[in-house]
Amino acid sequence: MNYNKWVACWGNATSITDRKECVYAKDITLRYPVFMPFSGSKLRLRFSNLTGTEAVTLSKIVVKCKGVSEECRGVLCNVTIPPGKEVTTEPIECMVKAGDTIVVSIYLADCTQMNAGTLITGPLSKGQYAYGDFAEADELPLDLSRHTNWFYFLNTIDILTEEKNHALVCYGDSITAQSWPDYLALRAWNGGHHDVSIIRRAVSGTRILRQYDCITYQAYGLKGSTRFPIEMNVAGASAVIIQHGINDIIHPVGSDVNPFRPWSDMPTLEDLERGTREIYVDYIRNHAELNHLKVYSGTLLPIYGWRTYNEMRDEMRQAFNEWLRKSEIFDGCVDFDKAVRDSEHTERFAPGYDSGDHLHPSEEAYEAMANAVPGGLF
Predict the structure, then answer these.
(1) C-alpha to C-alpha distance for 232 and 228, rounded to whole angstroms
(2) What pLDDT is stored for residue 71 in this prediction?
(3) Which of 229, 212, 226, 232 lies closest to 19, judged by CA?
(4) Are strands 166-172 and 196-202 parallel, antiparallel or unpaired?
(5) Cα(198)–Cα(57) distance, rounded to whole angstroms?
(6) Which residues of the chain are under the pLDDT cut of 70?
(7) Angle at which helices 180-190 and 363-372 cross, to 10°
(8) DSSP readout, 69-112?
(9) How far is CA 193 from the centre of its chain?
């Protein structure tokens, strides 16, 4: 087999973690299993401290391929990531077969600032942590470990693979940080498309045009113009689906209600269109290393019943969706809205497709979103 092309096989965004009372950890092991859509001969891992304010040292990184020989195992020690930076490891020799699961374990020996990480969910997004150094252990001790959906520091995994393989990037907010990219990856794999990976670049609460600098909402992430140039660093990418903008519409409530969400933050329809075009599409078209990418818009989902819902917000959402469907700046549109909305009352989710908060879909609806992606993107 001729393995001569680096392609991202797994990817996440990096944001500021939720500001809790405790922001440091010590003597802890993080463990993340990753499904491998491709075969390959080497792996390289990117770790991010993009939102950290202190240097982070990963005392030990252990990569194992589940179910294969001990030869497919790599150990790296004392990888230091400066604040605001990302670090890519030297290639690790590791023969991986498509369909394998590799396990990445990270041991943090010393007091470590846990500022850089992202909350993601889905059937392929399951992490664990344990107190103590168990990075090289096959199993974490039951009484010292718990499950987590916070993915700290681990940002991207690339594999040296065949020329035919490529990556599809899913970019967005909490809708994309939740399950549909995982269901899309499973749909591709189960449908026999073993030459495409699904790379998730999503942060809950993030907006196109603005970001929060207060600790209450810092975990809502960086604004689009800051995020996008960093998150589009995806080896072997062929296309990106951009499903973003609902938080710009639903967040502002007035400073008398919330001092961090003034009405001045409310965009116009023209603001959203211009931001999407300039921050995302024009950025790709104007950079030689990216301008081969196909760019697909993703329509915004129903919000009827959400706590800040009103007709003005929904009119803006629906008008923005029409622009996303019809604008010639995109190579196509993935109509997520149409896939999950009620056919008679288009401002709301179809029965069974609302998670209960009237903003985020149910698991069944996330599968419907994945099924709405054109097969040609595989």
Answers:
(1) 6
(2) 54
(3) 212
(4) parallel
(5) 28
(6) 67-72
(7) 60
(8) -TTSEEEEEEEEE-TT-EEEPPPEEEEE-TT-EEEEEEEE-S-E
(9) 21
pLDDT at 229: 95
Structure-token match 């993009």, residue found = 50
Backbone angles phi, psi at 337, to 5 degrees: -55, -50
Q: Could you read off the pLDDT of 55-107 as tens digits, one per residue? A: 999 999 999 987 544 456 778 889 999 999 999 999 999 899 999 999 999 99
68 Cβ partners below 8 Å, 6+ apart? 95, 97, 100
Burial of 268 (0-12, 13-18, 19+ CB in 10 A): exposed
Residue 97 CB neighbour total at 10 angstroms: 13
pLDDT, position 35: 95
Residue 146 makes CB contacts below 8 A (sequence gap 6+) with: 128, 129, 130
| pLDDT value of position 265 | 96
Given this model, what pLDDT does residue 140 score?
Answer: 95
pLDDT at position 69 is 44
This prediction's pTM: 0.95
Residue type, 73: R
Q: Tokens 């809708």 map to which residue?
A: 175
What is the enclosing helix (H) or strand (E) of 113? Answer: strand 112-113
Between CA 90 and CA 277 the distance in angstroms is 36
**Two structure tokens written together for 249:** 């519409």
Residue 220: which residues within 8 A CB-CB, separation 6 or more? 203, 204, 205, 206, 207, 211, 212, 247
Both structure tokens of 311: 């007709």
36-66 burial, b if ≥16 CB within 10 A, otherwise e?
A: bbbbbbbbbbbbbbbbbeeebebbbbbbbbe
Burial of 343 (0-12, 13-18, 19+ CB in 10 A): exposed
Residue of 11, 9, 10, 15 lying closest to 224 (CA atoms): 15
- What is the reported pLDDT for 74? 78
* pLDDT value of residue 70: 45
Q: Which stretches of the chain are DSSP H helices?
A: 174-177, 180-190, 224-231, 246-250, 269-275, 282-285, 311-326, 336-340, 363-372
